Amino acid sequence: MRPRVVLEIVRKELTETLRDRRTLMLMIALPVLIYPLLMIGFSKLQVSQLEATAERTSRIAVWGAAPDGLREAIVGDGKIAIDGGIRPSDAVKNGLEQGTLTRPEVAPRSAGARPGGQGARQAAAGPPEPDNPVLEAARAAVVERRADAVLVLWPDVGPALAAAGAGSVSIYFDSVREDSLEAQSRLESALGAYRAGLVAERERAHGLVRGFALGLDVRATNVAREARRSGQILGLFLPFLLVTMSLLGGFYPAIDLTAGEKERGTMQTLLCAPVSPLEIVAGKYLAVWVTSLIAAFANVVSLGITVMRILPGDAISVSPSTLLLAFAMLLPVTLFITAVFLAVAAFAKDFKDGQNFLTPVYMLLAMPAGVTMLRGIELNAWTAFVPVVNIALLIKALLISEAAPDLIFLSLLSSTAYAAMAVMLAARVFAREQVLLGGRDSLRALLGFERQTGGTPSPAFALTAFALVLVLAFYGSLLLQSAGTMATLLVTEFGFFLAPTLLLVVGFGFSLTRTLSLRRPPLAGLVAAILIGSSAWAVVAGGLLRLLPPPESLVRALEQLLLLDGAPAPLWLVWLVIGVIPAMSEELFFRGLVLSGLRRLGMWPALLTCALLFALAHSSVYRLIPTFFIGVLLSWLVWKTGSIWTSILAHALNNGIAATLVYSKPLAAAIGAGTHAYLGWKPTLAAVVVLAAGLLVLRYVPPGVADPEKQ
Amino acid sequence: MVPTLAAEGLVKRFGPVAAVDGVGLTVSAGEVVGLLGPNGAGKTTTLRMLAGILTPDAGGVRIGGLDIHDRPLDAKRRLGFLSGDTQLYQRLTTREVLRYFGRLYGMADPLIEARTARLVEELEMGEFANRPCGTLSSGQKQRANIARAFLHGPDLLILDEPTVALDVISGQFIVESIRRERDAGRAVLFSTHVMSEAEYLCDRILLLHRGRIIDEGVLDDLLARSGCRNLTDAFLLRVGREGSRS
Question: Which superfamily, per CATH, for B1-78+155-246?
Fold first, then answer.
């Protein structure tokens, strides 16, 4: 692939795209206009509504006999006016005056009901009252807007107060009407003040200490800082908006650059130029991606400015750095979706067809981002692997400063893996002339998954297999968490590494010997494997861990794992389960299937990519560099010797020795590894020498022995 | 001398149907070869295989001695392809289109500028070269398209019904351009439905029917063999005979 050609295609596609008014509208104009307009509109409306409500005097009706001072307490600050003209029916009026009506009992609130949250204000009204004449009359007065609220003083109020008891008072209001809610709130505070006065007077009269009837003076304080509170509010809708709007920015360009080109007959023009399909897809892909990013950026900037400058007060604020971070998180998700869009849109014959194809894809991919609007769904080890949702939740977590490094890593890792798969799919689609010229093609042929007897897999196949195994192993191990370390390890290694490897190789008809490097190892290879396998762990423990110390929790978790949950297992079992079985399964997958697939890329790209995938599969940012280092060594062993047995041997030794040291504290102490997380200098240097010797021995492996084409 | 274009045994199937079934042909420098055939004869599929847009199920294509399957980019650099339904980018101007393709063909910018200036003059495009292609008439579009196909000075031109849907004046303009390229030593393979164009332009003619070449030769030989006085009659006779045979 020639970068110059790809850039030329990107430039041309962007020029054309940016000259398309429809795209510009969706990409720039819509976000730039929509947020300020919506927010100005809503906030102005809300402010004026709130102001109007605050200014307005609440008009209430008071039914029943009021004790001394109550009416004055209610109208005292001038916010409430009692309208004597709002009367109930004579029956109710007489019933209240003559004491024939009493306040109906209501069922006590169930224990499970939670105060606060949505409807908290309504909940203040208590459980629903059974139908009764007073309720009917009050409802009519409030709903017909004759009164904002009705205060009913039941007949027991007078006698109860006289006897220093508690009188029954009801406030009837309509939670749907803001004016009525305000009236209820004002009435409650007025009654609260009146009640406080009553209680104080009684305490005084009875010579009781102040607060005798109060018991506890409770005050609740919200510990969330302002940034966190506004982050929570923004986190509800911002990730969803960012994801959907940035996707919308790539929607039309993806169709225009594929189905649109077919419809206009320009695809053929491009195909007869000296440009490879890969360069075409790369150019178009980058162009659509940049368009998505411009849309995302326009959204972030517009939203940021709107939030910071337009919204009234300090209720919501967000720092530019948080917005920038949110934008950065959009990179992998837009990479993924752009590739899916291109791959799908390429199948469409024309623009209309493209819209029909992409709309459901868009809905399917964008709508799950709406989970951020649901309370309680957070970024965790499960959601970190769900495409699109993980990034939406990650942005939400960033907004409330709650994103753990490991979860960020997992989300970005899985998103990148999905993006890589989608890009490969798009590249495959573009390599199919039938698709590009308007025809159809079989999915199997498209995915390059046709049986190919006796061959080795392609790099795309290896990477796809890796992505599948990674997701399978991850979800599988989560499901197995309660099953104990031993069972988890065995099922993961056999079920998620070994079985898929063998199934893929046999199922697609690849050569077992060549794909999995199942050849007899040369003697020098075995010696090198022993030297490397017995020293690599020490170089990691004494060198890399010293430079990049992992958190204590991870060290403990690894120790726990290496000791099989601390269960009293014999050493040979630890070696089998921690050393031999993972070495067999993981090596057959990584240094077998994956490395043979990557072989066509050349030595260093293949070794480094294979090691990187091996490191990524360990799903922890702290283990990335150590496992990458060991991965390079193991890949090199197989590359030089052509035999998987060498890397299995080295891998088993590496794991086994590490487990033995955790297993036997005296042994660890003897070599100075007992007290620290890392190894002392002397054994580390010795290990470096042994490792160097191993690499030196590898030079004595006869050339050509590893060349699969010659065997 | 190596022919500029050589193809042998080309086969292309779409499902059970063989659209092209064993076509072989050569075109040499300074020669115009016409590919004639009724609708559905396999002309477009053949030309697309020759231009490297479609991969043949069997057979091979060499352009200037280079196998288009093994060295597609090098082979395509020597080729200019144009078809009647080939379009240009609606939102780019003719000059921008030419610059884009010039760069894709690996030409340096000064060379692109010089070639563009010459083609704008030769193909009389001065009036519309700076307008977006979406605003051009059919004839103007096809001239811009020819400029795109000629820009990099290819040894071989493959033209698939280049005058289709054009008026007589625009059609004639294109025909004269092809003639000029032939005189400049280029090899030209073109398909057409217009028999007078074939008679006027072609040094050799291939008759394609149902995916096979059923006759080929210089115009006079074809006429002599069919006993007809013009190519239209000869064509109808041959195609009709083949049709009644099958």
Answer: P-loop containing nucleotide triphosphate hydrolases (3.40.50.300)
